[in-house]
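Sequence in, structure out. Go.
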Amino acid sequence: MERRPLFTALVLALCAPALGCLAYNDSCTPLVDDPDAVVGYLGEDVFLDKPFARHANNALGQLSADALLHAEDGSSKPAELGVVNGGSLRAEGLCVTRSSVRKGPLTDGVLHEIMLFENLVVTVDLTEKQLVEVFENSVGALYAEGQYISSPSGAFLHVSEGTSVRVDCSHTKGQRIRELKVGSRVVQIPARTDESIRYRVAMSAFLLGGGDGYGAILGSVGQDPSRNPVQARKLGGTDVNLTAAYMKEKYPNASQALTEAPRVVFENCALPVRPATR
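Output:
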């Protein structure tokens, strides 16, 4: 769920892209105390339009998934996998719509506008069957090769380091995941029904609460003590704060800059065409 106060919601309404934010630009309050503080470096331009956030690998989506993966490091039940829905990456900030962020330093203010909702992060156990169903939901609305990507679903999941997914869009919805590996564990497809086979997954409370069509799969998992749900405790437990801190640690300068990795492999799927960069 979105956790911004009412003021932010009002500003969002006033700064709707259709209005151009001309009359209200001076009133758009930064979301962090020091919006110009550099949180890390991008090794390439990152595109934020929906086809790039919701229908392709995306460096910032992967960064956030990595941050969630490591949110409970050192605990008795750390995550094996972090997932971030493409709908949580926004081109529309409070008063700026940006189709991309350029290679180089990334500021805290820009990152907080891209990840505008500040969702809480929860780590929870999923059965293998649920995990496969989650990923089938992630790719169920992807467009097949040759189709125009007109309205991609925000349910598409970016995955953390060590996880790989192979999806084939020539198959029907519910049968598109062809391979899934989480760390050293190869997930069986079709999934086994043995409920003792579980995976520790970190995700936003928005997804765990059923957002983006995940409710039928996850149900009340977040309230089930047997699934060991744990809310992230550091940095307010929000996705964007965890992401900012992780970027500072892992990508602090131009020689250690964030780049996209091919964690999701697309077969027979439409892919967005990257704009030419200077």
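Check: Residues 1-26 have pLDDT under 50 and may be disordered. The longest strand covers residues 121-127.
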